[in-house]
Predict the structure.
Amino acid sequence: MNKETLLIVEDNPVLREGLQDILAHEGYQVLTASNGQEALDHLRLASPDLILSDIAMPQMDGYALFQAVRTRPEWVTIPFIFLSARGEHTDVLRGKNLGAEDYLVKPLSREELLTAVNARLNRSQQIHMAQLQQAYETSLTLLANSIDMRDPYTHGHVERVSAYTLALARELGWQNHMLDHLRFGAILHDIGKIMISEQVLLQGGPLSEEEWVEMKKHPIVGAEMIRDIPLLAPAAPIVRHHHERWDGLGYPDGLKGEAIPIGARLVAVADGFDALSTDRPYRRAVSLEQAYVEVCACAGRQYDPEVVAAFRRAWESARLQPILAPWLK
């Protein structure tokens, strides 16, 4: 059964009841109004998931209702379908030019009605999910950047590593949903450093054995933090293994070669490149060109040769160099 709420605005009671019966039979919750003003009264109590409105009505017509709905931020994203007996080309154009999602001409069949309603609700849900994901990603970036607040040397590190990682993945042909878990892994790769003491994070020289042991915990801690969050759990292997090395000399698990998750291998190159090209407490940054040379020199030892080959292609096509530019100003 559907749970969406629809608002039908129609002054003809027979047609209004007919539309209500069809949509209610499909499982929708249906509200009705006989004119635009009555519809606004409903909207002030609860926002429907879609509005289906006639145009020619007393007190307030459909065009005026549409304009009133679109002036309120809390209603602006509600899909709006005009329903009218006026099928002239100019009327249809006016409705669509106002920004309505659809324009249906009476009389219409049950199939036409349901097709239009379902299509607009599905599209609205897709947009809503995309907006939620963007908001979620922004929140995760802010969380990850809490490390930047503790360590001024890594300012912008999260954004740069994410951008470098996605550039490399695209060189390898990754697309669409394949990038989602990778993006989250890149954003959160250092989240475990929240639990590392500032004394260790800001150490200006070589770490002691005890401090190094503490530092090596951050990939494990980070992976544990997100492993039980359904949307983030697939990114946990990236977080845990981004400090593994192709030759097996990395940490925390000493994985080697293709036993290291591919997402972690991508983040490792991006992370290493950013570490070389930005100032750190223990050394000054090298130039982008020198950082590029050093990353390439580590292919087959520290980094996956195939990922480094993608890194070379991205460099040669100038897709990496602009990423650091905003932080050099």
The CA atoms of residues 2 and 26 lie 7 Å apart. The chain is about 55% helix and 5% strand. The chain has a mean pLDDT of 84.
